[in-house]
Structure formats: C-alpha cells, structure tokens
Design brief:
Blueprint: H1 11-16, H2 21-27, H3 29-39, H4 54-64, E1 66-68, E2 71-75, H5 78-88, H6 90-101, H7 118-125, H8 134-140, E3 147-150, H9 156-168, E4 173-175, E5 184-187, H10 198-201, H11 203-214, E6 218-220, H12 223-234, E7 243-246, H13 253-262, E8 273-277, H14 281-293, H15 298-301, E9 304-307, E10 323-329, H16 350-370, E11 371-381, H17 390-401, E12 407-409, E13 423-424, E14 431-435, E15 448-452, H18 455-460, E16 485-487, H19 489-492, E17 497-504
C-alpha cells in the first residue's frame, strides 16, 4: 500500500488550544474543572456503587449544580459561590452551608498517595463536595505502576527473563493474578516502582528491562494499551496469518503486539501483515524507528507496512480485500494517562473532548467500512469521558445500522484475563461545556462548567461547540452499550481506558 505524505496540525494540540492559555495552566484551573466535571457524572463513569453509596453521589451532584432551566452552571471556587449567593440569596447560601456543615475530618490518605499532588490539593480544598471521587482521586494521585509484558515469541531468552524476575526481583515485580499465561508483570504495591524511579529504586532491574526490551524479549507497555489486541485475539479476529490495520499506530506498542500473533512463526504459507498508519509523518518515522529498535527479528518486522494517511479517509485496499481486524485507538484527551503524563491536568477542560468527538466518530465510521464481514473493530481511548467513548460508539452504530443491524457490539471475551475487573459501558452521562469568559481570573475563580439536558437547550444558550451526538440517545439501551468496557484506575492500580468491540455481521 503506498505512502502519502499529509501535513496538518495535530488534532489533539488543536483541541487543547485556547483553553485559558498561560493563566489556565498556572492557576490550577484544570484540576478543579476535572473534579467538577467528573464529580457531576453518574455512577459508572468513574465511580462505582462501592465508592460511597449512590445517595451520597446523588446528593453531591444535586448540591453542586444550581439549575437555571435546563442548564446548570457550576462554579468552582469561593468567588463563584459568592456570586451565586449574591444572585440567588438564601437558596445558594443554604447549599454553601450544607457543604461546610457536611465537611468532616479527612481520613488519612492510603500509602503511596502524594498529598502534595495538585489534584489532591484541589480535591481537599473542595470541602468534601466530591467525596464520592475519593478512590478515583487517590488512584490518580499515585505514580502509575511499572507494567511489563513478555513477548509471545518463544525463545530461551523469554524463559530466562521470567525465571530471573521471579527469582531475583519478586519484591519489585510479580505476575498479575488475572493473567493465567504469566506474561504480564506489574510492580508490587510496596515497591511503588514506576518508570520514573526504576533506575533509582533498582538499577539492576532497570538494566535487565532495558536489555530485554532491546532484544525483543520484553515490552514496557501499560495495561490499558494491551487490552485492544488481547480482546481482538480472544474473539478470533487477530490470528496467525490475519490482515490487521492499526489506524493510529504511533508509538507502536499495539502494532508490535498484534505482529507477535499474526506472524507467530515464519511460514511460506502464512502471509499475515500489520498495516501501521499514522497521519503525522514525524510520528510515523518515530514508529518505524521504535519497531526496528524493539529487538523483534527482522523476518517479523518485515511484515509491517507503514502508511501515512488521515485515518478518517483511509483508502480501501487495492486488492479489495478488507481487514480481519482493525485497531482503532483514536486521538483522545488522554485523561486516563494523567498518572504518567503531568501535562494533561493543568490544561484540562471538557472542551478538548468535545472538539475531538467529531474526528473520533469519523475515524470509527471509516474503520467500520474497512472491516470485512465477520471481522472486528476495536475502538479504544485512554479517556474516561463518555463524550469520547460511548457517545462516539452510539453515534456510529446509529449511522451505519439504521433499520438493518449490520454491526453489533460484542461482550468482553469469555476467559480473557479471569478475575480482571472491568466496568460496563454507561448509557447515561452529563454533557458539560467550559466558558472561560465567565471567570474573573482571581486566585479563587476557575470559571464554570455548564451542563445541559439536551442539544436544543445548548443551542438555545448559544453554545457553539454543541453537537447533537454528545448526548445520550433513546436507542442507547437497545445498542447494548453495557457491552463496552471501562478500566477504572482504582480497580487495578492502572491508568484509565475504554474498549468497545464491534463485529460486522452483514
């Protein structure tokens, strides 16, 4: 398949632009907006019934949102509360008093939680308004544990590295309990080992990890990143000899993971191939270099084809043969990666997700056109925002199915990672918008997030970025969105991730 250079702005950078600029980043507004947005989402988005009872969650949301018709404008600061008190009189005063009266002495933070983390500071400053987010925030305030994956290529090196990890470094890394193959390792809770402190905590282990990564034995890969390929393999879409498209492939961890299955052994009759595509030429070059540096034998990496297309208009194969499996891991806001990327939260705003939604939908729709009958698309993001997750999946299914169900969501594959905790997709969520024009830019004011019950309400309020597909649709339950899977950071001490498996049946 030919390469075509295509220049253009990074969609993620474009989505993040003009979000308050330097003031937004320096003031800590992103942390408060993040808490406000997810604190006003229903159970299932980032919390469960175990994270405080549902009534507590409901009370927190009710106290936080003062309705103005179908609109709820949520202030995030003392200054905002003062403005609401002046405007609304005793009603708002009673809400503020309720927040203060309900404040209790905070329980000690669990081990590993960095109380100096800006997110924890913002959380503690909110006077227990978002107590139902406690487990979620505590998880996000800890460094992301180091996660390793033993590659599938059978070799003496693989056996040697697993024996060495078990024999000499079991205080630092152990196999996860939910992987019967013992190929996934994670740092132990006591070690607090992450990629940032590995060299300091255990230089001997770092040397082994680096060496094993370069000889193709081991991959440093986050748990969420492993899920799309594991799912596609388990449902029979990625097999030996399969033709796989990775639509947004950089940095290449999923490409290599799929390659290990597609060309698990070199056989003249096995013509498996992975197409690694990325819209950005520089990222594609970095991807190519990373794959060549991976230590995976050249006879395997030669089965990767590199392409440089906009994923939303990826061309049909000249052979007319569609793909067996498509990895559709789209550009996203990355709020599930904040444990390893400190740049996400300072600039966080719901606008990023809202602006990426249309692009994500276009890419998923293209993937559904390119998959063969019986094939499976895995749509995924490292975001927990339903606007980027279930809203995209729901809109895509409505557009392609109509009255003729040609595509269907699949359940999480049976027997994949037994004991692994994944949460079902949601069919209800709240849609919010950030308006930095409603702030005074003082030390206490971080602006507001306005929630709207419907697209029409947002249009009437002149919200320019509103899109009808942001909101839950009446067909959500019929689409079985619960078959989607959410990986919450507090469940397995991981990042946040979202996965949806879509099979073409006609």
């Amino acid at each position: 398949m030919p390469k075509r250079k295509k220049s253009g702005n990074n969609p993620l950078s474009s989505a993040r632009k003009d979000v308050g600029g330097l003031w937004h980043r320096k003031s800590g507004a992103g942390y408060h907006l993040f808490l406000t947005y997810y604190g006003n989402q229903p159970v299932g988005v980032v919390t469960t019934d175990d994270d405080g009872n549902s009534q507590q969650n409901k009370s927190a949301t009710t106290a936080s949102c003062q309705s103005d018709g179908n609109k709820a404008a949520m202030g995030n600061s003392r200054a905002a509360k003062k403005r609401r008190k002046k405007k609304n009189g005793s009603n708002v005063a009673s809400v503020v008093a309720h927040e203060i009266d309900s404040t209790t002495t905070s329980a000690p933070s669990p081990p590993g939680v960095d109380t100096s983390h800006p997110l924890m500071q913002a959380f503690n400053s909110e006077s227990n308004k978002f107590a139902h987010l406690t487990n979620f925030v505590h998880a996000l305030s800890r460094p992301l544990p180091l996660t390793l994956r033993i590659r599938k290529h059978e070799s003496a090196d693989s056996a040697e590295i697993t024996q060495m990890l078990s024999r000499e470094f079991s205080n630092f890394v152990i196999p996860v309990t939910y992987d019967p193959t013992k190929q996934i390792y994670q740092s132990t809770p006591r070690s607090n080992l992450c990629k940032f402190n590995l060299g300091h905590q255990c230089p001997e282990l770092k040397a082994i990890v680096v060496d094993a990564s370069m000889n193709g034995t081991l991959a440093r890969q986050e748990l969420g990143s492993m899920l799309p390929v594991l799912c596609l393999e388990k449902v029979g879409a990625i097999t030996k000899g399969a033709k796989v498209l990775d639509m947004c492939a950089s940095p290449g961890s999923k490409t290599l993971q799929a390659l290990e299955i597609v060309v698990s052994s070199i056989d003249a009759k096995t013509r498996g191939r992975v197409i690694a595509n990325d819209v950005h030429p520089k990222r594609l070059d970095s991807l190519r270099e990373a794959i060549h540096r991976s230590g995976v034998p050249a006879e395997f990496t030669d089965r990767v084809t590199y392409t440089n297309f906009d994923a939303s208009v990826f061309p049909f194969p000249k052979s007319k043969k569609l793909f067996d499996a498509i990895i559709c891991d789209v550009p996203c806001s990355g709020c599930g990666t904040i444990r390893k990327d400190p740049h996400i939260l300072p600039m966080w705003s719901p606008r990023t997700s809202n602006e990426l939604h249309v692009l994500q939908l276009k890419i998923l729709l293209r993937a559904m056109e390119l998959i063969k009958k019986g094939g499976v698309v895995c749509y995924s993001t490292c975001s927990l925002n339903p606007i980027e997750d279930e809203a995209v999946v729901s809109a895509a299914l409505r557009e392609v199915n109509g009255d003729d169900a040609r595509y269907q969501l699949l359940d999480w594959p049976e027997e994949l990672l037994p004991g692994f905790i994944k949460r079902p997709g949601v069919d209800k969520w709240n849609v919010g918008f950030y308006d930095e024009n409603k702030l005074e830019k003082d030390d206490d004011d971080f602006g507001s997030i306005s929630f709207y019950d419907s697209y029409n309400d947002a249009v009437e309020a002149d919200v320019e970025e509103a899109n009808a597909s942001f909101w839950p649709h009446t067909t959500n339950k019929e689409q079985s969105l619960h078959r989607c899977s959410r990986l919450l950071p507090q469940d397995q001490d991981s990042g946040g991730f979202f996965v949806a498996l879509i099979r073409r049946i006609k």
